[in-house]
Design goal:
alpha/beta, 7-stranded mixed sheet, two-stranded antiparallel sheet, 31% helix
């Protein structure tokens, strides 16, 4: 099974106040921690919704500013075009980035973590279905997950979603 790793990084970091992808934790930018975790689990890694000099960039599809699903949709279509079987997604703002996501999630159906639902495995056969969902104007991740009856698995302990500067400060002091 060929798997594409997709870092979901298109958010504007409004709640955070600055570009959280570049923020350092344990001497490494958050985005590089996610990349390092994915690299050992997938065949290729891309970044969705933003530019990062060392990664291939995919723009939201079918149009800009669609939130996480626009990035996931772009990754699914890229994966389908390039002969991948699925996409393993992880947001740029999760810490620590799990290094065993493929083992926990990969399979034949859409599977996500219960709480960190942007960490998930998406089979490429969902590309057209997700695009159709987005073209109706819907952008809710939970709505699509529910519509597809996504399998949900328990999150590994200790995952933090870095949405606020205070979240980052807690990581640096723990």
């Amino acid at each position: 099974m060929r798997i594409l790793g997709a870092i979901i990084g298109g958010g504007a970091s409004r709640r955070f106040g600055r570009d959280k992808a570049a923020e350092q934790v344990d001497g490494q930018a958050l985005i590089e921690g996610v990349r390092a975790a994915l690299e050992n689990q997938v065949d290729e890694v891309v970044i969705c919704g933003r530019n990062w000099s060392t990664l291939e960039q995919l723009n939201d599809r079918p149009s800009p500013d669609l939130g996480p699903l626009g990035g996931i949709n772009a990754a699914l279509h890229y994966a389908a075009d390039e002969g991948f079987d699925g996409v393993l997604c992880m947001p740029v703002d999760v810490y620590p980035a799990p290094t065993n996501v493929a083992a926990l999630l990969a399979g034949q159906r859409l599977t996500v973590f219960e709480k960190q639902h942007l960490i998930g495995f998406w089979p490429v056969n969902l590309a057209d279905t997700l695009e159709a969902y987005l073209l109706t104007g819907q952008r809710k991740v939970h709505g699509f997950l529910n519509q597809m009856d996504a399998r949900r698995v328990t999150d590994p302990p200790g995952l933090t979603n870095v949405n606020w500067l205070a979240d980052l400060e807690k990581l640096k002091t723990s």
